Predict the 3D structure of the following.
Amino acid sequence: MGVKEIFETMDYGPAPEASGDALAWLVDQGARFGHFIDGAFTGPGDGFDSRNPATSEVLASVTQATQADVDAAVAAARRAQGPWERLGGKGRARHLYALARLLQKHARLFAVLESLDNGKSIREARDIDIPLAQRHFYHHAGYAQLMEAELPGQVAQGVCGQIIPWNFPLLMLAWKVAPALAMGNTVVLKPAEWTSLTALLFADICRQAGLPRGVVNIVTGDGAVGEMIVKADVDKIAFTGSTEVGRRIREATAGTGKALTLELGGKSPYIVFEDADIDSAIEGLVDAIWFNQGQVCCAGSRLLVQEGIAERFHAKLRARMDKLRIGDPLDKSIDVGAIVDPVQRDRIATLVDGNSEGDIYRAACALPEGCFYPPTLITGLSPASRLMQDEIFGPVLVSSTFRTPDEAVELANNTRYGLAASVWSENINVALDIAPRLAAGVIWVNGTNMFDAAAGFGGVRESGFGREGGWEGLRAYTRPGGKNKPLKSIAPFAGEEAEPQLVDRTAKLYIGGKQARPDGGYARNVYDRSGKLIGQAPLANRKDVRYAVEAARAAKGWAAATAHNRAQVLYYIGENLAARRDELAARIDRLTGKRSGGAEVDAAVDRLFTYAAWADKFDGRVAQVPLRGVALSMREPCGVIAALCPDELPLLGLVSLMAPAIAMGNRVVLVASDPFPLIAADLYQVLDTSDVPGGVVNILTGSHAELAPTLAQHMDIEAVWSFSETDLSAVIERGAAGNLKRTWVNDGQARDWMGAEGEGRAFLEAATEVKTVWVPYGA
Amino acid sequence: MNVTDISHRSTPAPDHGGDRNPGMALDLDWVMRATANRSAIERRAATLPARRSVKKAHQAAWLARAISCIDLTTLSGDDTAGRVRRLCAKARQPARADILEALGLPDLTTGAVCVYHDMIETAVEALAGSGIPVAAVSTGFPAGLSPFHLRVAEIEESVKAGAEEIDIVISRRLVLTGQWQALYDEMRAFRRACGAAHVKAILATGELGTLQNVARASLVCMMAGADFIKTSTGKEAVNATLPVSLVMIRAIRDYHEVTGYRIGYKPAGGISKAKDAITYLALIKEELGDRWLRPDLFRFGASSLLGDIERQLEHHLTGAYSANWRHAIG
């Protein structure tokens, strides 16, 4: 077409990015890749082709790792870990800085290779993926530099097994590798089988940067290789991918003592209020659901529009969709590229074709040959529609309407997931009220899909746990230093027979602020050291767990109470405990057969005061993201926390878990010391007189082993902690896979409850979720 | 035209093709509903140049299109008849004849020539037979603070002198103090004074404080019968920007959806690079559609832009980067 014709048509024409350098790099490597283990590439073995999804051309062949490969990689990482950690934060910072610089120098090569391998548009690879990956290494070079000064007492986890998805291959690598290396860990990373190439280029960069061998190891292959890594001798697993696979990993690692973070799926709501800048909200949707072909875990895939503007909004949205350009990912004027693999495209098609509800609209843009799927909008769905609940992971937006802010929150939270959410309103009151009420780890106000190394990213509910980015992200790659000490089990004292008591004391369960008889109607005798009967402790069963969780769920006002108010309640409990010091001390001595009851009560009072102090001081922060606006890292309560309390110190152990949890606004279901349960009866009397709202603290007694599975599997509990002497770590972690609740278990290790280990930030962090709220602004 | 409630409207109004906007009653509900989220708008504006790229013949064609949409402008205190005649000659022959010949566009001209009132007659004379209209800035340009009756009279004088397009300036204080009815009435009066001449409303966006004000002022001027809305006089500290353009053309889009009338858009001031011109054209294409990529609905208010485009066009033809002195001065 000549200039004269184009002058009339004003078409864009092709604007291809050259792929020569990237293809030449592949050819230079022989177009056949082995693994990167112990600082060198292994020879290529049996494997599979890596294809360009836009053309289905083979780019290279990649090796399927064997068990021996994984073992070799883990062994190399293990050998390298000690020296790498001992190199110190400042030494590691230099290496991370060098990696960042090299990523920057080869930015275009990475971008083109990513686009070729994944099918994403060159614009996104060039302007988003690669710059964010660089930024992650630069930012974490800083954390390495500051680690010793700012994270005293924290040490590396050790060897980290990392399994990453195909949607942001290099970026997800950066999110995993940078924090791990910064904190002194070494890694064995497996890229997704469809998109291994930029990870292999990164391996090449590691070699060029002079990274010590074994610090980064990359093995390629499918899910079977991932399973090998999960089972391998690693200290931590970090996984980003589907909720289904995340659940299997949770089950597989249960009870192994391996640390775990999961960044899983989502069905993130995109809420548009009637006072929003509608054109901007529509443009935001382009970045929410048509970014990376909708293959984004945090994609704003569930549109919720206020009813009054819905019809007009949808009409404008359809018009905007028609302007999207779909085609050759290497074309610089393309908005929507190729779906990563025909398997995924077919999966999307099956989900959409299986839907018979609502109105479906496909963008009126030409669909090229190859692995593409048109931008799609389905309006008029109800929360019950399958497509409103299931993650599609493609360029398909589903939509529903709401009437009021409360209804918007209710609909938004009506999901198993909780990764991200967008809120569009020009009214700061509305936006800042809604943001904290959404069940999600990341909230964007008047924006979408904003990411930065300085801000935490991660989910709640079945979107996983753990954060990536920011100071909070470092928790996943560190642990407190110090030696482990195995727990000794404590058996309850036995008694021959039941001697009559002076006055019968009837201990009960404490549920919803009331004393309750156990549902099963059973109790067990509790004896003192000499075998004399002290009393009967009720045996809670699964029904009692249910009632206790219901009561805790209902006490939602506690989270909304001011931190000052919660502090006052904690002080009051401490005050009332202190008033009964001698009586409680005597009871503890009789229960435990020791003489440390007085010291235990004193420590418990002190602990309550400590968390009363913390209640209004465990602040969030404002992350320094490159944006005119603020990214708030807010500390929020997890919700309902169930805890199996330490056995050996019946009062202090329970208080040590209860106090931080309720100080942060959680409601708790506590299972008192298994051998010494009767202290619960004294404690709930104290709670009754201390203005603790009913349902905030619920106390059960009974067998830890019996109650643990019910608690772990309960879908309405956000977190389970276990410091029981009974070895329940595996049971709890496996049971928690159901709703992917957070767990904190002792793995059979002892903790010094009387000392510094028994309180502090670790407890507060376990009792809170970090929610990142992005608030860009501009008058 | 009656007040139209757009909040429940999903089907666009019947299209009026190229008919002139008659205006409509001031719909204050609509005006007050207009919002503009600066951060989101800036993000869209910042990513747009990276989202669209035109190369080779397409780039040359787009640059030629840009030339056809330029209001070649001189608005200086030292303008003389000689200076204006020179500018008009440039408007008739915006690039070297051999370049235009090679592009297959030998008859390409700029969209208009834009001058002060006193230069109208000279320009009309110089452009006789070319079909290129003369635009005159008016109403106490650039501040618009002369007596109202004189501002109206100035329009009438300019129309009498042969200007086919009048670029008026609005009273910024009416926007800054929220006097929308007064702004509407002022614009209405200006439009009436223009008669058959087309009227471009200069909002002076750099002096309106917020993008929301830009959105609201755009709507009020269109309701009052503006044929074009224009960003700037070129004399403000900040002139045309992409975010401001986005706000104004979205207002144009809404107005078209509701009334069926197409309003033109003219960014002015600060656009001096060929690359910027392409970005603006892409913005218009994306947000308003191809119909707006014609001089009856889109103009650049620019003086130095043409020179850069000429150099780029020569580069397109020869493959070698060009130099200023190879192209005639306007």
User: Anything to note?
Assistant: The two ends of chain A are 45 Å apart (CA to CA). The first helix of chain A runs from residue 3 to 9. Chain A is about 40% helix and 20% strand. Chain A touches chain B through 45 residues (CB under 8 Å).
